[in-house]
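This part of the workshop introduces the protein records we will be handling. A learned vocabulary of local backbone shapes supplies the integers on the structure line. Getting from the letters to the tokens is the skill we practise here. As an example, a complete record with its sequence and its structure tokens follows.
=====
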Amino acid sequence: MQSKPLQGRVALVTGGSRGAGRGIALELAQAGAYVYITGRSSTASMDEPSAGPGTLEEVLEEIERYGGAGASIRCDHTRDKETEAALARIDAEQGRLDILVNNVWGGNALPIENKPFWEQPVRHWDNMFDSGVRAQVMTNYYAIPLMRRTEGGGLIIHTTFWDRDRYVGNFYYDLAKNALVRMAYGLSRELRADGIAVIPLSPGWMRTELVLDSMQSDERHWQEVEALKDSESTAYIGRAVAALAADPGVIDKSGLPQQVGKLAAEYGFTDTDGRLVPVFELPE
């Protein structure tokens, strides 16, 4: 019988319809957690520009197909009332929240180019800060009171990118991703007494749906693409989150940036193809 170390836990994964969010939601559910997934890409709203590829309903069907349990909530996290309503529903239905994965991100609406700041469109700010950083701030704002009432501590994850404070090459992207790292640090200080760990988590070169589409490939044929040979599936970060959530000593990592490749070596998990994918490192 497969181990269910997160049985009885309740999780929320924002931006859960695709990419890292989908991978995290599936792995948490397989580990036994009841998983709520939120996002804008719902079957009921496929006429919106934000929808596709992938919907919340499709991910929920996949969770249930593998014997997991959860629910989907159509939520635009840039609208505070919708975020508040989503957390109120979780409170009403479960009365607890053990794991929060802040994964909602609107920063890829424009190409992320390595050009000087003054040559970049200012709209990057709206995409990365309003639809990314602020959306995660407000999710924390409505989720933390519920998490503080939940017995046994908890875990908040911010998916971000971090490589030993190296500059990532795009001013807005670098600023936004480091804001998420700093947000996790500040919250880790404020929530330590409650036993809630807050961790900024950095994946490597992920094969998201958008990446695969840009390479004219899919999850069955990615090994045929040379540029993807060092990539990792979205399940890899999902396994990192599940391992952190099951670790009784996770509070010792609170506030400290973590990289998926290092956690794989520490906790002993591999990617879906059996590889221990090393940490992705930026060039000097």
